[in-house]
Design brief:
This protein is an alpha/beta fold. It contains 23 helices and 17 strands. The protein has helices at residues 3-17, 27-35, 50-60, 72-84, 98-110, 120-123, 126-132, 165-168, 183-194, 220-228, 243-255, 269-281, 314-321, 339-351, 356-374, 379-386, 398-401, 410-422, 429-436, 442-447, 463-475, 493-499, 531-551; strands at residues 40-43, 64-68, 89-91, 115-118, 137-143, 173-178, 199-202, 210-216, 235-239, 260-263, 286-289, 302-307, 331-337, 406-408, 479-482, 488-491, 506-508. Strands 3-4-2-5-6-1-7 form a seven-stranded parallel β-sheet, with helices on both faces. It is elongated.
Amino acid sequence: MSISLLNKKALDVLQQTFGYQSYRFKQKEIIESVLSGNDTLALMPTGAGKSLCYQIPAIISSKKTIVISPLISLMDDQVAALNECGVQAVKIHSDLPYEARISSWNNFKSGKVKIIYLSPEKLMSENIINELKTMEVGLFVIDEIHCVSKWGHDFRPDYNKLSELKTLFPKSNIVGFTATADKTTRLDIVENIFNKNVRVFISSLDRPNLSLSINQKTNWKNQLVDFLNIRKMQSGIIYCLSRKKTEEVTSFLINKGFNASAYHAGLDGQVRKNVQNTFMTDQAHIVVATIAFGMGIDKPDIRFVIHLNLPGSVEAYSQEIGRAGRDGKASDTLLIYGLDDLVIQRKITEDSDKESKYKFYDNKRLDYLLSYCETPECRRKVLLSYFDENSDNCNNCDNCLNPPSLIDGTILAQKLLSTIYKTGQFFGQVHIINVLRGSEDKKIIDKGHHNLSVYGIGNDKSKEFWQSFLRQMLAYGHLKINFQKYGAIQITNTGVEVLRNKLKFLYKDIPIKLTKEMVKAPKYLNKDLNTEDTALLKNLKFLRLEIAKKTKPTCFHGFSR
């Protein structure tokens, strides 16, 4: 059959089977590539209709199609949707009764059904591979193909085995789809799955209907309720890092009168299915979930996505917020994060079994995400630039709508850096800020840090202020966290330049109100001094430190980024 005739049949299927009158994004070009027998890799934003790009060729083809899908819920949704459109498709997964699995396989094997959905674990089992070798498989579809890359998500080890498909089935075509993959991940996929011989399609990841907002974590409960109170009649997803946190947040929201449900892998399969069904049908339902929920769920009217913890990468963040507003209508995203999230994500990376070079790049990805969180620039511009896409200011993110003011924070930075240096670069942010603010914490007394010249020199700022300020210095690379030393905050080479007054530090305004406690004099300052003398003494001590640094510059040797 000629390619022109195949293209005509594809358009007929699009219109008559699926009810769409025309293609969107790069669907037409991708479908033509698949129909022409090319191995194909497509990067498309969530909601762009990736599934049609392989379902239409699978319907037209006389050969069998195997769709490799990561989640049971995703298989259930897509098979049910195909069946509703009159397309026969089956699935095999662990939640199905044994008889149903056998029936699905027999129908696929006999040719009664041409399309089957399998997990990577099931597909790569020895008995399935041996049986498939006796069949005529025209197309292998790898959904969420970024999972095959060592540079991508540390998601499912069996995805890596899919690199064997090209060798096992040299006459079959392979197509892969994902909503998120940076340049390094794409190159890794092209090399490992397609042996560098593949047509690559990259659609714009810009979702102008999504507003992007990021808040630093102060009181997440109040921040969450403030956001949700004006969205009580809307559906949304709240992402948390742990199962325990999803349960905590769900209970809190229910007590506040919200229609909320938890969703994570520790729940019974039927419970998860009921939560998903409720979410698909209710007008105002909130699912509090771990990362797995939402992948492939075709609910067009998700009006908001909230992250209560820092995601592991820009890719993960981009994919998850993309689940909002699939109908093209205005939708909101909110990320609430703190330095504790950064520590957890770094520890996850360090504790993984990845080689050191992959851990290095995972940490770099997290660095970029942190910079994205702290940037004063248009968020959409910074986000899209990560995927090598240029953009104008969106006028729809918090930074565009309320541009942050930049303040010369060089003196404040030097106070923070001096405190880190004087305490030996052995302590985490809590201890550093406690010393800076003149806390009477027992650990400070035991270490003798109340006798340091830097003790209390930052007591005119709140703890929350210094936490945010420290995060911005981390984002700009002037500080780093040493995980081999239990999260100790350390000074980088550029931080030394700020400390030596060779580099200015501009920070984004931190709108935190002063309280009486914030300006309380440290206990161990001389009680005979009045307020003006105390302030003068602190400034003189800081000046003494600066003079000492200039006369003994070698004491700063050995710092590294």
